[in-house]
Amino acid sequence: MDEKLRSEIEATVFRRLVEHLRVRNDVQNIDLMNLAGFCRNCLGDWFKDAAQAHGIDMAKDDGRAQIYGMPYAEWKERYQKEASAQQKSSFEKAHKNHE
After folding, report:
1. Which of 5, 36, 39, 51 is most deeply buried (CB count within 10 A of its CB)?
2. Could you report the per-residue pLDDT of 60-90, keeping only the tens digit for each?
């Protein structure tokens, strides 16, 4: 497999992951962080970083909107639930230095 085809396949997989996360808005970001060590916000931040590495000026909120399919504040209002004490405790133990 050449690099161009590999890149196209990776892009297809990424778009499928993003679509899956948009459909599964019942899955909370804190659960993703506690289980996988990353969440939708991380993906949005990585999107912004990659865009900037390619010379595209992008704000953090714009990168996150690419993942959420809407502004993060709107997604948060519609779908985010208050984290339980157990979720918060797990997060604190596993991600003491996470932004």
Report:
1. 39
2. 999 999 999 999 999 999 999 999 999 999 9
